[in-house]
Amino acid sequence: MSIPKEPRQLMINIMYLVLTAMLALNVSAEIFNAFKVVDKGLKKSNDILDVNNSHLPPEIAKLARKKDELAVYAERTKPVQEISKEFSTYVDEIVDHMIEETGGYLEDGSLKGYKNKDITTRFLVNEGKGDELEQKIAGLEEQFLQFIDPEDRERLAGEINLEIDESWKETEKMSWADFNFRQMPLLATLPIFSKIKNDVKSAEATVLNYLMNKVGGEDIVFDKFQVVMQAKKGYVIKGEPFEADFFLSSSASANTNTKIDVAVNGQNLPVNDGVATFRSNTSSTGVKDINASITVTNPITGEKTTYSNSFTYEVGERSASVSADKMNVLYVGVDNPLSITASGISSNDLKVAGSGSGIKLAKTAVGKYNATVSAQGGAKIVLSGGGLAPTTYEFRTKLIPDPIATLSGVPGGKMGNGTFKVQRGLIPELKNFDFDARCNVLSFSLLRSPRPGTGDAAIVNNNGSAYESGTSSLVSKASPGDIYLYENIRVKCPGWPAGKVIGDVIFKIQ
Fold it and tell me: Structure pTM?
């Protein structure tokens, strides 16, 4: 939406500017906290507007009783309020849907999915909800103006100002929704929606104050100001300019000729329609501080009041990384989860490709991939797109390591007679291996060496991991002092070209 000249709306709009400014590059916890502060301030201004607007209709109705011809103005108050209320409800439904889709609220009242960029991009941009919102906003001004007498509409149109800001057309973005919401963290969009509601409530106030004047009343005066910054871009790369607008937000005012002077970091800026644009080169990375002050001159008394605020934004460089979530090796025959990040690059623009060892990559979530390889050796993953030069990451590819033979997880040693006899097979386990893989026993030999003086040694061969009849019979003879040796244990794990013999395991019966 464009920035209005009318001070009571001008004062409210400021907080909106702070919000997007803080989307510069990697958003820190402090900046996310600033989003909360900005949204809280905007909601407070909305609450003040609601209270002020609710007081006007009864007063208009009361004053309209003086003359019969004034009744028409009192009749217009209800539909004006309904337009504002219906639109606010519509915006709230959009916000509630995104919050619910990202997990709702935590016990401390904070948003679980406050960093989520998928819901804003998918719901508002890809699925068209943002375009629908734009169309609704575009039709609001005409809806409000129908309650203004024809001879006054041209003058009031300049005060309502609900048209869509078309500066996005000068960018590479495809639409207003794409410009405002693509790849925006959920928390960063909330002040945008609060600001949109603020504009509509301010338009409601403008119309209600007009109706009040028509029946002989006076405007409500808004007199609470706050400095707000709005960044032109939500992400700043080193070498690109950082640009932001500064203006005043208000919770009240009635004068249409309020003059404001803006200074940022000591630099006086030209003001156009209540907005001053600040531009700064970004030659180094890191968190940058901005100190802004706005001086308001009362058009009636000439009194000057200065409001100040401090902001931060962050500058970074385009970079990318690929890391194996389990370890820095890709294993043959199993799924290898990968985290792939690229700072300063939209996930929609990032290209991921793999080569070597039969590698295949599948995207599982935002920034998450799964890699499978079919041979030992090495593999490469190449990232590119979004202004990132092709960057290669090399990985070793290996077979799953040898498992350890166990009985119910016990890799040998002493075992009670009763416990030993209830075992039903040999189980190979991958100790300290974080991947979801299961090996199989192909065959083994079991040697029983009874305690001295109680009989002769015996040996049986077994196919598979489960005991066959000969093995079960040999196990049933176990008594304290006996020694059982599992040897020639042949196993096969996922990705292995063939089975192989692993280490022996010995149990002494107690």
Answer: 0.43
Q: In whole angstroms, what is the distance from residue 83 CA to residue 181 CA?
A: 25
Mapping DSSP to helix (H, G, I), strand (E, B) and coil, where does residue 477 land?
coil
- DSSP designation for 220: P
Of 249, 244, 240, 248, nearest to 277 (Cα)? 244
Q: How far apart are CA 94 and CA 282, in angstroms?
A: 35
Q: Cα separations (Å) of 252 from 46, 300, 424?
A: 11, 16, 81
The rounded distance, in Å, linking the Cα atoms of 345 and 116 is 16
Please, which pLDDT band fits residue 344 given cuts at 50, 70 and 90? low
Amino acid at 39: D
For 183-204, what is each residue's pLDDT tens digit? 888 888 888 888 888 889 989 9
Q: Is the pLDDT of residue 224 over 60?
A: no
Q: What domains, with CATH codes, occur in the chain?
A: 7-235+251-257 (no CATH), 319-398 (2.60.40.1080), 404-509 (no CATH)
Consecutive H or E run containing 87: helix 71-101
DSSP string, 279-346: EE---S-EEEEEEEEEEEE-TTT--EEEEEEEEEEEEB--EEEEEESS-SEEEBTS-EEEEEEEETS-
| HSE-CB of 6 using CA atoms within 13 angstroms | 25
Judged against a pLDDT cut of 90, whether residue 463 lies above it is answered with yes
Could you tell me which residue, 23 or 202, shows the higher pLDDT? 202
- What integer pLDDT is reported at residue 153 of this predicted model? 86
Using the structure block, give the residue that is written with the tokens 């004062």: 11
* Cβ burial, residue 40 (10 Å; 0-12/13-18/19+): middle
Distance between CA atoms of residues 267 and 273, nearest Å: 19
Q: What is the DSSP string of 110-174?
A: -BTTTT--HHIIIIIIITSHHHHHHHHHHHHHHHHHTTS-HHHHHHHHHHH--PPP-GGGGSS-S
Please give the sequence-ordered ranges of beta strands (E in DSSP) within 399-482, or none if there are none: 404-406, 413-415, 427-429, 440-449, 458-463
Please state the length of the chain.
Answer: 510
Q: Minimal CA–CA distance to 401: which of 426, 369, 434, 427? A: 434
